[in-house]
Design goal:
The relative contact order is 0.10. It is built from 8 helices and no strands. The protein is mainly α and about 160 residues long.
């Protein structure tokens, strides 16, 4: 029989032990320069980037609450398709600037012309971390998803 959990407590995540732990470390070490003393995410592209490390330490696996943080996460996950998470994180400030800090109502009000202007600015600007990813479909999805969120929250 399983003992009931007390209210408000989360179940502990299972941790690898013994030969399983050794196997995980051995596999990681075989794929890159990861060792038992390095963080588990050190095998991924961009893992040496300070922004990526801060994200993995301070945000990844932590619960997001509130409409704006959840909407931002949804949008950035969509932008990642085919790219590394480090690439998207490097451009997060550019997305916040272009998409009104992920204010859902403002993003929902963006027209295709507004999105085109974001794309043109990205292509003509300095590039790099100061520009969003130049993919019209991905950019349009942010405004579309904002409208969907508003529709879901609508009392009708």
């Amino acid at each position: 029989a399983v003992a009931p959990m007390k209210a408000g407590r989360k179940p502990a995540a299972p941790t690898p032990t013994g030969s399983v732990k050794k196997k995980i470390v051995k596999q990681s070490a075989g794929n890159s320069s990861a060792t038992a003393s390095q963080p588990w995410f050190s095998v991924f592209a961009g893992a040496n980037n300070q922004e990526y490390q801060a994200y993995m330490r301070d945000e990844w696996g932590h619960e997001k609450r509130g409409d704006v943080p959840l909407f931002e996460k949804l949008c950035l996950e969509g932008q990642q398709a085919g790219l590394s998470w480090a690439t998207v994180l490097a451009k997060r400030a550019a997305y916040r600037k272009a998409f009104h800090n992920f204010n859902i109502k403002k993003c929902a009000a963006m027209s295709e012309k507004d999105i085109d202007a974001v794309l043109v600015a990205a292509k003509e600007g300095p590039g790099g971390r100061d520009a969003v990813i130049c993919h019209l479909g991905k950019l349009l999805s942010i405004a579309s998803n904002a409208r969907c969120v508003l529709n879901l929250k609508s009392p009708n």
